Amino acid sequence: MLTWYTRGAVNSDRCSYLGEYSRKEICKGEWGMSRKDYERLCSELDNTRQKDHPHAYEVLSQEEREALQYWIERAIQTAPKADERHSSYGLKHEYERETKLYVSHAQFKGAMLVAGYLPTEKGEQSWHFKIKPAYDEKSFSHDVASQNKRLRLPAYRSTPQGEQDPELNALVQKVLASHRDDDTYAVMI
Q1: pTM, two decimal places
Q2: What letters, b where the CB count within 10 A reaches 16 and e where it falls short, cover 7-33?
Q3: What is the pLDDT of residues 64-108, one digit of tens each?
Q4: SS3 assignment for 165-187
Q5: Phi, psi torsion values for 163, nearest 5 degrees
């Protein structure tokens, strides 16, 4: 079961999801993506030839959803305009780089919807959102920002570069433990 909730004064582009570790009230229409709105949007996409359908999110295990939603919560924030440089497909890879956990493009798109981020153009295969990285490169010194760019370090990450997030690491370990006997699950190395 998915739990939807609001966090204080969120805007219409943002509503979050958490797994078993925190249950809150259901989102109301103007405060974010309610389950009903999620189902409606996915239903609208059923009537198109949409590749990478976000309903694939629902096949993720509870542990996988928790890790993915935690990362989105920590790595991404809302912005007044769309980030045209980072699509849903690119963000999926940023998540995989940091966690070493594979998710499909469709699953990542579904996770963004559940988190309350609406695509600017839902008819496109790769979606863009009104977002920005939680850790903005502009806040770093010129030398650090240049080095991050030269080393192709991810723009979207759950912690500042070089720091570890113990809670994210624990969620990743929980995912790995839940799949130890599953031959079909792959961890990126």
Answers
A1: 0.73
A2: eeebeebbbbbbbeeeeeeebeeebbb
A3: 999 999 999 999 999 999 999 999 999 999 999 999 999 999 999
A4: CHHHHHHHHHHHHHCCCCCCCCE
A5: -100, 155
